[in-house]
Amino acid sequence: MIDWTRDYAAIFKPNRGLCVVKDIDFVDINSLVGLNTQKEQLIKNTRDFLDDKDANHALLWGEMGCGKSSLIKAVFTKFYTDGLRLIELFYDDLRYLSDIIDELRDSEFKFIIFCDDLSFENGSRDYKFLKPLMQGSIEKPPRNVLIYATSNRRHLVSELKSDNLGTEILDGEIHYGDAVQEKISLSDRFGLWISFYQGNFSEYLQIVDFYFKDINVNKELLHEAAKTYATLRGSRSGRTAKQFFMSYKDRIK
Question: Same domain for 29 and 61?
Answer without folding.
Answer: yes
